[in-house]
Automatic annotation (TrEMBL):
<dbReference type="GO" id="GO:0008734">
    <property type="term" value="F:L-aspartate oxidase activity"/>
</dbReference>
<keyword id="KW-0560">Oxidoreductase</keyword>
<dbReference type="Pfam" id="PF00890">
    <property type="entry name" value="FAD_binding_2"/>
</dbReference>
<keyword id="KW-0274">FAD</keyword>
<dbReference type="GO" id="GO:0005737">
    <property type="term" value="C:cytoplasm"/>
</dbReference>
<dbReference type="InterPro" id="IPR003953">
    <property type="entry name" value="FAD-dep_OxRdtase_2_FAD-bd"/>
</dbReference>
<comment type="similarity">
    <text>Belongs to the FAD-dependent oxidoreductase 2 family. NadB subfamily.</text>
</comment>
<comment type="function">
    <text>Catalyzes the oxidation of L-aspartate to iminoaspartate.</text>
</comment>
<keyword id="KW-0285">Flavoprotein</keyword>
<protein>
    <recommendedName>
        <fullName>L-aspartate oxidase</fullName>
        <ecNumber>1.4.3.16</ecNumber>
    </recommendedName>
</protein>
<keyword id="KW-0662">Pyridine nucleotide biosynthesis</keyword>
<dbReference type="InterPro" id="IPR037099">
    <property type="entry name" value="Fum_R/Succ_DH_flav-like_C_sf"/>
</dbReference>
<comment type="pathway">
    <text>Cofactor biosynthesis; NAD(+) biosynthesis; iminoaspartate from L-aspartate (oxidase route): step 1/1.</text>
</comment>
<dbReference type="InterPro" id="IPR005288">
    <property type="entry name" value="NadB"/>
</dbReference>
<dbReference type="InterPro" id="IPR027477">
    <property type="entry name" value="Succ_DH/fumarate_Rdtase_cat_sf"/>
</dbReference>
<dbReference type="InterPro" id="IPR036188">
    <property type="entry name" value="FAD/NAD-bd_sf"/>
</dbReference>
<feature type="domain" description="FAD-dependent oxidoreductase 2 FAD-binding">
    <location>
        <begin position="4"/>
        <end position="374"/>
    </location>
</feature>
């Protein structure tokens, strides 16, 4: 099949790009149900934009740089925060119903933002509302064809550039040719024992890019959320997120003895930065404690109305968060690193572009500011689409010779081994010894994996992450080291 542009992924980044690319003919490939299978739909907090009279894109940029430990690309940050208000207005125009206060948006405030600037919808259902609007617009757009249940398995290269994609669909392999291929495949949660990400966030975009020879950057910068709902048994995988807004509303973290541990560790106690709270929860668990998030006093009877998404997750586990504390573990939440992109979302391989969580545009530095990732997908996705609109006139039919063999699924034992290795040795707390153990374990797994298999591809990405973390342990990694954590824990 021939298109002008192929977009792999139907989250916020992929759909923003596809919609903006008219009149180019765009194929959107997505591995599950259209617009429902990525993390975007699950986002709770919202989208950050300087819309308040006391706010400005430069203040938003300053907060973004501070959160990122100044390791961000300052120009990319400016493009992000300058573009934020227009991106929110565009989403509004295509039908997203954000919560309003009189004539303007009701703006929330989140940790590390110096102003109220979070646009949200139906309380904690912001991502679902944004995706509803994008899905509807994409379905109505005559230049967009959607291929649901199509998993991209290989990029096709020709004359040194990417010119297509091989995908496995319901009826077998399909090869798509195009002038431009956009990776919008989301995150890497499937590499970790616990994650808040959906199953589709399995690092396949990074694996595709790696296989095509594209450069990856900042892979060691992985954000862990301090409070996911702990699993009932020992199972690994996706866990429901217990939003930061609960701690914002006064919920406290306590250990098995009912003792709060955050006030002794950080001035802002439970509202300290995400990484500080996450490592403190990890340290308690490592000591053999259980950790609980207690909202019974702070939220109590208002829980179901104030936090409907969290309430539903707890009730599904037989927990009534209005009356009892919720058991928590930290969980992998977001990848700041990814496929390296320039100011035009180009990767290092001609014809291959990346937007959204799979990309490393440099906006997040070492740590993402809350509610900046839906924003990144929107702003950079639209900007890329607008540039790719021009490729329609340059469309040229090519025949591709690509290996379209099904690489299969990652076997359950290999999946578990990767998750455990990264969680234990390349997770919240890292040191040189643990990273060397992780590297050795991944080498063993790589030796046993069949060539060109999905397992080999995922292991290769895990290896790159561990190598990047090992290179970093002596610089920013200071706060990832066990001794630093021990000192903080006092
Ligand atoms: C629980 C939760 C809450 C969050 N809350 C917020 C928030 O409030 N604000 C905020 O800014 N961010 C939030 N985030 C982060 C944010 O949701 C994500 O970073 C963002 O949605 C990523 O968008 P994306 O378009 O890059 O990827 P996604 O929305 O994850 O979409 C990826 C798409 O790629 C597809 N795909 C993947 N691999 C393949 C393949 N091989 N072939 C075909 N298709 C493929 C997937 O099926 C999916 O359609 C949250 C994340 C989670 C998990």
């Amino acid at each position: 099949m021939h298109y002008d542009v192929i977009v792999i992924g139907s989250g916020i980044a992929g759909l923003a790009c596809a919609l903006a690319a008219a009149p180019a003919r765009v194929a959107v490939l997505t591995r599950g149900a259209f617009g429902e299978d990525g993390a975007s739909r699950w986002a709770q907090g919202g989208i950050a934009a300087a819309l308040a009279p006391d706010d400005s894109p430069s203040l938003h940029a300053r907060d973004t740089l501070a959160a990122g430990a100044q390791l961000n690309d300052a120009n990319a940050v400016r493009r992000l925060t300058d573009g934020a208000p227009a991106a929110v207005h565009w989403l509004d125009r295509i039908g997203a119903a954000f919560d309003r206060d009189g004539a303007g948006y009701r703006l929330g405030r989140e940790a590390a933002h110096s102003r109220a600037r979070i646009v949200h919808a139906h309380g904690d259902a912001s991502g679902a509302e944004a995706m509803r609007a994008l899905r509807t617009a994409a379905r109505a757009a005559s230049h967009v064809d959607v291929f649901e249940h199509h998993r991209a398995v290989r990029l096709a290269t020709r004359d040194g550039g990417v010119r297509g994609v091989a995908a496995i669909g319901p009826d077998g392999a399909v090869v798509f040719a195009a002038n431009a291929v956009v990776l919008a495949t989301g995150g890497i949660g499937a590499l970790y024992r616990y994650t808040t990400n959906p199953a589709s966030a399995d690092a396949s975009g990074l694996a595709l890019a790696l296989d095509a020879g594209a450069a990856l950057s900042d892979l060691e910068f992985v954000q862990f959320h301090p409070t996911a709902l702990a699993p009932a048994g020992g199972e690994s995988g996706q866990l429901p997120l217990l939003t930061e807004a609960l701690r914002g509303a006064g919920a406290v973290l306590v250990n098995g003895a009912g003792r709060r541990f955050m006030p002794a560790l950080a001035r802002d106690a439970e509202l300290a930065p995400r990484d500080v709270v996450a490592r403190a929860v990890w340290a308690e668990l490592e000591r053999g404690e259980t950790v609980w998030l207690d909202a019974t006093r702070a939220v109590g009877a208002a829980f179901a109305q104030a936090f409907p998404t969290v309430y539903a997750s707890c009730r599904a586990r037989g927990i009534d968060p209005a009356r009892e504390p919720m058991p928590v573990v930290p969980a992998q939440h977001y990848h700041m690193g990814g496929v390296r992109t320039d100011a035009f979302a180009r990767t290092s391989v001609p014809g291959l572009y990346a937007v959204g969580e799979v990309a490393c545009s440099g906006v997040h530095g070492a740590n993402r500011l809350a509610s900046n990732s839906l924003l990144e997908g929107l702003v950079f996705g639209r900007a890329l689409g607008q540039r790719l609109a021009g490729v329609a006139s340059a469309a040229r039919r090519v025949d591709l010779d690509v290996d379209a063999a099904d690489p299969g699924e990652v076997p359950a034992d290999v999946d578990a081994a990767i998750r455990d290795t990264l969680w234990r040795h390349a997770g919240l707390v890292r040191d040189a010894h643990g990273l060397a153990l992780a590297a050795a374990r991944l080498r063993e797994l790589a030796r046993a994996a069949p060539p060109r298999s999905a397992a080999a591809a995922r292991i290769a990405v895990a290896q790159r992450i561990v190598e990047a973390a090992a290179r970093r342990t002596d610089s920013i990694g200071a706060h990832h080291r066990r001794d630093a954590v021990a000192a903080q824990a006092g």
